[in-house]
Specification:
alpha/beta, 6-stranded mixed β-sheet, 4-stranded antiparallel β-sheet, 19 helices, 10 strands, 63% helix, elongated, disordered N terminus
Amino acid sequence: MPLFYPIEPGTVTIYHPPSKTCTELIMKNDITQPGSPAFLNLMQQRSWRTLGKLLQFLQPYRWRVVGAASALVIAAGSVLGLGQGLRLLVDAGTIGGNAQESCSWIASVFLGLITIMALATGVRYYLVTWLGERVATDLRRNVYEHLLRLSPAFYDVNRVGELQSRLTADTTLLQTVIGSSLSIALRNIITFVGSIIMLVATIPHLGLLLIICAPLAAFPVVLFARRIRMMTRKTQDHVAGLSGQIDETLHAIRNLQAFGFEPWARDAFFSRAEAVFAMARSRIVQRTFLLVMVMLLMFFGMSLVVWIGIRDVNAGKVTSGELSAFLFYALVAASAAAMIGEVVGDLFQAAGAAERLIEILNVQPQLISPVHTVDLIQPQGSITMRDIEFRYPTTPDRPAIQHFSLEVAPGERIALVGMSGAGKSTIFSLLLRFYDPQNGRILFDGHDLRHLDLKQLRQQFAWVPQQADIFATTVRENIRFALPMATDEQIWTALRLARADEFIQDLEHGLDTELGERGVRLSGGQKQRVAIARALLRNPKVLLLDEATSSLDAQSEHLVQQGLRALMHGRTTLVIAHRLATVHDAHRIVVMEGGTIQSIGDHKYLLQHSPLYAHLAALQFMTLEQNISADQMDFVATQP
C-alpha cells in the first residue's frame, strides 16, 4: 500500500509552481492510511466540494433546472395523491353509502392524477436528459480549451492517454449521472420525504414508529458510500492508465510489431484490464451490500408496521382505507429509500469523475501574456539571449542551459551543433516560450519575451521539427493549420516553393486528400515538405529548423533542402544541424556542450579552434568514407 495514496496513474501533477494537492493535505493532517476514517472524511469533503463546483455549469440553464424541478415536484405530488385516492376508494367500498357513485368519482380523480403524473414525468425526463447532455458538452469544451492553454511542462509529467480518458470517459459518466441518476435521486428523496409526512398524517402512531426505524436504513448508506466513492476514483484512475497504454502501443504499432513485442503489450494490457476489473468488482460488492442492507432493513420495518396495523383495523382503531393508504405510502417510501441507496453509488462515482476533471481545470497555465503587453510594430526578427540559465521542472537539479549568451541579427542564419543532450532543442523551446528561463533574459527586437503577448510572439516564428506533425485531415487543412484563412492559391504557392506541389497533384483528391492518422499516407520526405509548406504559408520573421533531412534518402533530402532554401530566404534562421554537411549556408556556427556555448565561428575557423567541432567533423567524414566504401563493395559484388 503506497504511503501517498492519491499519487497514482491518472493524478494530474504540476511541478512549477507546486499546486495544493491531495497528498499535501494528507501530509498536513498526518493521514497515512487510505482506509482510515480521517482519510475517508477528507476525501468525501473534497468530493462534495468538487460536485458543488460542477453544479456551476448548470447556472446558465437555471430556468430549465427550475422547469425540471417543478415537473419533478408535480410528478412526486401526483404519486402521493394516489395514496389518498386509494384510501377513499377502499373506504367507499367497505363503509356504507352510495358506493357506486363514490367509486366513479374517485376513479375519475385517479385518472386525472395519473395523467398529470405521466405528463410531468415526460417533461422532467426531457429537461433533465437535455441538461445532462448540455453540461457534459460544456464540460468537454472547457476542459479541452483549458488543455490547449497549458504549457508543455504540464504534458512532460502527464500522459496524454490518461488526459484523453478524463475528457471522454469521465464526462460521459457525468452526463449519465446528471441526466439520469441525479434526477432519480432527487425524485426519490422528495417522494420519500412526502411519503413519511403522509404516513404520519394518515396513521400518526404507526408513522412515528416507521420514522424511528428509518435511521437503521440510513446507517449502511453512511457506512458504504465513502468506500464506494474511493473505489470509484481508483477505478477511473486505472481506466485512465489503460487508455494511456492503448494510446502508446497503437501509435507505435509498427515498432511494436517489428520488434515482436506483441506478447509483452498483450500481457501488460491484460494485467491492467484485470486490475480495472478487480477494482470494479470490489466496488460492486460494496454497492451490493449497501442495496441488500437498505432493502432488508426497510422491508423488515414495514412488515412490523403492517402487523401492528392489521391488529388496529381488527380493533376498530383505524379504517381499512387508512391502512391501505398507509401501506401504499410505506411501499413508496421503502422503494424510494432502496432507489436512493442504489443511486448514491452513482453520485459518488460522479464525484470521483468530477474531481478528476476539476483537477485539470484547477491547473493554472504557467505561461500567460502579461496584463500590459508591448506591441511588436514592424518586427525585424532580431534575437538576444543574455546569460540564460534554465532547468526543466522535471529535473530541477540538472541545468539544461547555463551561461548562454547569443546575439542574432535580423536575417542571419545560425547553426547549432553539438552532441545529443547539449541543449540545442531547449533553445528552441525557450524562444517559443514553452518555458521561461530561471535566470537571464531573452529579447525579441529588444523586448523581453515576458513582456510580449504570447500569441503575437509565436506568430513571428515558424518551427519545422525533425519529425513533422501531420494531422488526420486533408492536405488543405494540414497546411492551412499555419494560416486558417489562407486561400487555395496561397496554399499552392507555398507547396511549389516547398517542392511539394507535384506529389500533392498526384494524390487522388489533391488538396482534399485525407492523409490518415499522423500522415500515414505520406513518406518521410513528403511529410517534411508539407511541414515546410506550412511554415512558408505562415511567412514568419524567424525560422526554427530542427534539421528535417537527417533521416531521408538522397533524393528526398535534395528536394527538402531546396524547399528549406526558399523558406530561409530573407528570414532570421536558427538550424539545429545534426549533420555538419548541412551548415555550409550558415553565417555562424554555434558549438554547444553541456548547455553552454563552447565556440562560435564558421566551418574553417571551428576546425582549427574547436576540438569538439573538429571531433564531430572527423567522426562524420569517417562515417561518410565508410559508407562510400561499402557502396563501392556492393557495386563490385553485383558485377559479373
